[in-house]
Structure formats: C-alpha cells, structure tokens
From TrEMBL:
Name of this chain's protein: GTPase Obg
Annotated family: Belongs to the TRAFAC class OBG-HflX-like GTPase superfamily. OBG GTPase family.
Gene name, Swiss-Prot/TrEMBL: obgE
EC number: 3.6.5.-
Domain OBG-type G: 159-330
Organism, as annotated: Anaeromonas frigoriresistens
Subunit structure: Monomer.
Length: 426
C-alpha cells in the first residue's frame, strides 16, 4: 500500500509549574523563598528517515503529544525538561499548516528536521519573585501551554525523471524494462493507482531515479480522475519523459494527447510545464504507425521538443532513450524548486500569539480571555496579598485595565477573568 498523505494533530508539552517553597535549614529562621522553576515542555519534531518510503504509520496514529516539563521543587531545584517527541517521516515530505494551508517545511535529506510544535516554557518559582520590598512572595508562575496544531503531511517522490502521459500508453511497461521496479501492468485504464519509483543504471557510477506518474487525463489539475492526487510527485523531477501512444489504436490523436497533457501541467503549475521534456512515441512496433510517427514528429519538433520512437513491448529504441535521458539530466543539472516554503508564523511568533488577549462586554458583564491571562490566573494565589498585588500589576501592564475602561466599566461592575468572577475597583 502506498500512503502519500496524512493529517495529524501535534502538541508540544506543557511547561512545569514554578514552586512555592522556603529555606528550612537549621540556624536559618528567615531563609527566604527557595521555590525552583518548572521545566520546559518537550517539542514535537519531524525528522527524515531514509528507511521510510510511505506515511503509512501516520495513517493509524493521529495524535502526538510531547512530554510535559516537571514542576519546580524546594531548595531552588529546577524541574526536568520534557523530552522531545520525534516523528520520523520519509524523504520528500512536505509539511502544511492545516489551518492556513501554508507549506511550512520541505524535508528531503537524511536527518532533516523541523520543530512543528514547540513546548511551553516552565513557570518561575517564588525565589524569582523576591524583591527588596517583597521578600517573601507566596506565589509562583504557572507553566506555559505547549503549542498545538493540525498539520498535513504530503509525500512527493524524489525522482530525477517523471514519466507522464495518458493512461495505457506504456509508462509502467517502460519503467519495468529500464529498472527493477515491478509495477502492475494490464491493458486497461488506471492499472496504476499509485506512483512507482525505480532506479536506472546507465553505467558504473551513473544512475538516476525514474517515477511512473499515473492518473493524468484531461481535467486532472482540478481533481478529475486520479491526476490531482499524483501531479504533486512530478514537482521534484528535473526532466519529464512524455509518452504518447503513436498507434492511435484507442481512437485518440497523439498530437491532441500531447497538447492536453501539457495543458494540464500548465494549469496545475506553470513552472512545471517549463520543465525539460523528452517526447517519446511508444508502440512503434504496431502496424501502420510509421506515417503517424512521421506526422507527429514534424508537428512536435516545430515546438522545440526532441522526439524519439520506441517499442516498450519489444524494447526497440529503449537503450538509446536511456542514454538520452542521462545526457539531458547532466545538461540540466539542478532545477529551481517549485515548492514554496513560507515562514511558520504560527510557530515562531508563538509568544506574540499568546498575547492575543480578548476583552469584551456582554450586557452588563465584562469578560477577559486569552492564554497569557490563563497562565496569570494559574500563577496567582488570591489569598496572598503580595500575589494579589502582582496580579493587579500584570493586568495593568498588559493593558487590560485600560481596555476595560474604554468599554465603559464602572466601580463594582462584574468582570469574568477566565471563569473567575471579580468586582472592578480602581
């Protein structure tokens, strides 16, 4: 089974809470605060493993959560950081943020890695809140929540050469001849329902990877047939080998087929249509194909393409084609990637995102929400005067008091802060 797409949920570990503790050594009656910080939560990391060929493992397990950080302890002991969670993926995997649809990573080389969900920071212990005027703080900071998101993984084959063309033109047969790949072959459309990858050995130290891309028909770019699922696998190829059935035995015009496939490439991605192409007329061994090939070659060469004739069934012209492909690959060298990776705003601006505080009014009640406010509530001991004062100061520093005033709040009005009811006093 070939699995080339998976949607999974990832969550970084939560940070551990800071501790409230005091020095208790003998002869130290006023030892002061000694609560340690919480540990950071683990990250969720995608890492390339060249031993993998599909995303099958991610089809059955959908949720991945990194370990949390340990809470701080007494004697200023820090909590242990949560271990990172490594998810192994095959080379050629691209990563999309499910919510925005952005491509945020392109993982192609062995040991390539990407932090897809960052763990939360550990909270500070009460030792960190001691000042000259607040020498015995009875509160600590809560740990930060880890980032969570849905992501979509897509596997794009790492092939140098892509075999394209209408169904049943001989792509799978050619692949089975030139490489050790064993694709399913039969005389009906869509025999091939998954991309097949093979390696062609030209000479000692000279080889290339070639992929049979199935499902290309008119309308493939918009989802018709199987083409839209498999067009993505051509994106990494350097050279396209375009096969046409020169016999016309299925009632199709080879020239018309050639133009339709190229139009699909252009509609899917214009840069893809500009990839170097070698045009191959297959089934030259069948009767009455010589005249068809002559007309086809004249027409296609006018457009600047190189045209070759082969018979995949009898292997006529196949060896010459292999050498031509190898020569073209050497001539082309590296090609521009058409996979555009965007900055992962959601990940690297996590801290700013957490400051998305919502202050709103419903009827006569005011509401304050947001992850940073939740963290502040977790860190507050409302029975302790110092902690309550710190809480009020943070509300002012975050601009929440000013935003409540702008909404028209008055003395003794009710304010709901993350589920807790307060009365407003200046």
């Amino acid at each position: 089974m070939f699995i080339d797409k998976a949607k999974i949920f990832v969550k970084g570990g939560n940070g551990g809470h800071g501790a409230v503790a005091w020095r208790r050594e003998k002869y130290e009656p006023s030892g002061g605060p000694a609560g340690g910080d919480g540990g950071d939560g683990g990250d969720v990391i995608l890492k390339v493993d060249e031993g993998l060929r599909t995303l099958m493992d991610l089809r059955f397990k959908k949720h991945f959560k990194a370990p949390v950080g340990d809470s701080g302890r007494s004697k200023r002991q820090y909590g242990k950081d949560g271990d990172d969670l490594i998810i192994r993926v095959p080379p050629g995997t691209i990563v999309k943020d499910e919510e925005s649809g952005r491509i945020i990573a392109d993982l192609t080389l062995e040991n390539d890695s990407f932090v897809v969900a960052k763990g939360g920071r550990g909270g500070r212990g009460n030792a960190k809140f001691a000042t000259s005027t607040r020498q015995a703080p009875r509160f600590a900071e809560g740990g930060e929540a880890g980032q969570e998101r849905w992501i979509v993984l897509e596997l794009k084959l790492l092939a140098d050469v892509g075999l394209i063309g209408f169904p049943n033109v001989g792509k799978s047969t050619l692949l089975s001849i030139v490489s050790s790949a064993k694709p399913k072959i039969a005389n009906y459309h869509f025999t091939t329902i998954k991309p097949n990858l093979g390696v062609v050995r030209v000479a000692e130290g000279n080889s290339f990877a070639i992929a049979d891309i199935p499902g290309l028909i008119e309308g493939a770019h918009s989802g018709t047939g199987l083409g839209h699922d498999f067009l993505r696998h051509i994106e990494r190829t350097k050279v396209l080998v375009h096969l046409v059935d020169i016999s016309g035995q299925e009632g199709r015009d080879p020239i018309d087929d050639f133009h339709k496939i190229n139009e699909e490439l252009k509609l899917y991605n214009e840069k893809l249509s500009l990839r170097p192409q070698i045009v191959v007329a297959n089934k030259i061994d069948l009767p009455d194909t010589e005249e068809n090939f002559k007309l086809f070659k004249e027409e296609i060469e006018k457009l600047g393409y190189e045209v070759y004739s082969i018979s995949a069934a009898t292997q006529e012209g196949v060896k010459e084609l292999i050498f031509k492909i190898a020569e073209k690959l050497e001539e082309v060298g590296e090609v521009e990637s058409i996979i555009q990776v965007e900055e992962d705003v959601k990940l690297y601006k996590l801290e700013d995102e957490n400051k998305g505080i919502i202050v709103r009014k419903e009827e006569d009640e005011y509401f304050v929400e947001g992850s940073i406010v939740e963290k502040l509530m977790d860190s507050t001991n409302l029975d302790d005067l110092d902690s309550a004062r710190f809480f009020q100061k943070r509300l002012r520093d975050l601009g929440i008091i000013d935003r409540l005033r702008d909404l028209g709040i008055s003395e003794e009005d009710s304010v709901n802060i993350c589920g807790y009811e307060f009365e407003f006093f200046e």
